[in-house]
């Protein structure tokens, strides 16, 4: 029998009331110091009927900060801020850990960005003073690689202290871990560059260090195979992910989260023995389908996914689970100018249904 989006499912020690996952989405509502603000507790509490919430990309160290007002998890005040969020939203939350690598700027982090190789992000980057030209990152030394791995592990421990059930290591969308995987951003000649087996090494070491800190059953990994966001050109996509999943498949991780999954290509169901979260490939930057991605998600379940993550549909519909269950119309998503501008507008002020069966 085919699973439905509204079935219960177990994820490690968590019993999820449905198979709908709120995907991690940056909303830049933290303070300038990376401390989550009270409005973020309201935002996540409103969406707590999701089977699982994966909270937005959060930096494990200062140099990993991407844009202004991105939350961190490497200082005590940041941990305290996140603790207020998890207390408000309940226990079914993972926190995504993301290091920007070359996607950073001294005006945002106060530090010069680092990356596998000194290859700049094309174009400009958003800072507090508007868009500015990107800077050429400094190539990470092996000592800095080891320190960054330790920072990820420490951040994972902080996330558990803050009340999260686990963490998701972000290895996609052109950020630091993805930069190590891709040919065009990793020109290293040491054991972290060159052949695919070397280029996956950093991701594997980060994931295993995080698992060693908090337990593999509390660790998920997100990948976005073939994604060209942020100037990424992987070059040998199939070999990258066969090698990476071959390394991690036996580690007992909580889940693999595949972004922009296509049910026609199997999205690694054959290669991944554990829980698989699939994120459907919906039009971007075009409008969402009227059902918010429900039919696409159902196709992914039929193809073997265990859970389905949706992003923009959860932004506009705090009560998305109830709306989908009832077949009720969805709120339209407001313009992108409301996504990152701060405050309640386009964040915590979307309406909910007055009455609906849940």
UniProtKB/TrEMBL annotation:
Pfam families: Oxidored_FMN (PF00724). Its EC number is 1.-.-.-. This is N-ethylmaleimide reductase. The keyword Oxidoreductase applies. It comes from the Bacteria. It comes from Amycolatopsis viridis. PANTHER family: NADH OXIDOREDUCTASE-RELATED, NADPH DEHYDROGENASE 2-RELATED. Residues 5-331 form the NADH:flavin oxidoreductase/NADH oxidase N-terminal domain. InterPro entries: Aldolase_TIM, OxRdtase_FMN_N, Oye-like. Keywords: Oxidoreductase. GO terms for molecular function: oxidoreductase activity.
């Amino acid at each position: 029998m085919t699973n439905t989006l509204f079935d219960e499912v177990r994820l490690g020690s968590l019993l999820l009331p449905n198979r709908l996952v709120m995907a991690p989405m940056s909303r830049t509502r933290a303070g300038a110091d990376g401390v989550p603000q009270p409005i973020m507790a309201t935002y996540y509490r409103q969406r707590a009927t999701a089977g699982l919430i994966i909270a937005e990309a959060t930096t494990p160290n200062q140099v990993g900060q991407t844009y202004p007002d991105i939350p961190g998890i490497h200082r005590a005040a940041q941990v305290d801020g996140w603790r207020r969020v998890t207390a408000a939203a309940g226990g079914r939350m993972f926190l995504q850990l993301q290091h920007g690598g070359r996607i950073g700027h001294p005006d945002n982090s106060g530090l010069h960005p680092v990356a596998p190789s000194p290859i700049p992000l094309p174009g400009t980057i958003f800072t507090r003073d508007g868009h500015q030209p990107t800077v050429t990152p400094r190539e990470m030394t092996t000592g800095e690689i080891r320190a960054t791995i330790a920072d990820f592990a420490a951040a994972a421990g902080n996330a558990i202290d803050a009340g999260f059930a686990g963490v998701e290591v972000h290895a996609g969308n052109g950020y630091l871990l993805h930069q190590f995987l891709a040919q065009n951003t990793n020109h290293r000649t040491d054991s972290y560059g060159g052949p695919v087996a070397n280029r996956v090494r950093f991701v594997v070491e980060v994931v295993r260090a995080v698992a060693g800190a908090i337990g593999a059953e509390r660790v998920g990994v997100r990948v976005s195979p073939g994604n060209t966001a942020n100037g990424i050109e992987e070059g040998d996509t199939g070999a990258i992910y066969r090698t990476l999943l071959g390394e991690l498949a036996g580690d007992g991780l909580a889940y693999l989260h595949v972004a922009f999954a296509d049910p026609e290509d199997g999205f690694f169901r054959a290669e991944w023995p554990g829980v698989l979260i699939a994120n459907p490939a919906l039009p971007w930057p075009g409008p969402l389908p009227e059902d918010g991605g429900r039919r696409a998600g159902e196709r992914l379940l039929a193809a073997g996914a265990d859970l389905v993550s949706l992003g923009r549909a959860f932004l506009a519909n705090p009560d998305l689970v109830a709306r989908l269950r009832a077949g009720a119309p969805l709120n339209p998503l407001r313009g992108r100018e409301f996504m990152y501008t701060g405050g309640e507008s386009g964040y915590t002020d979307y309406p909910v249904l007055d009455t609906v069966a849940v």
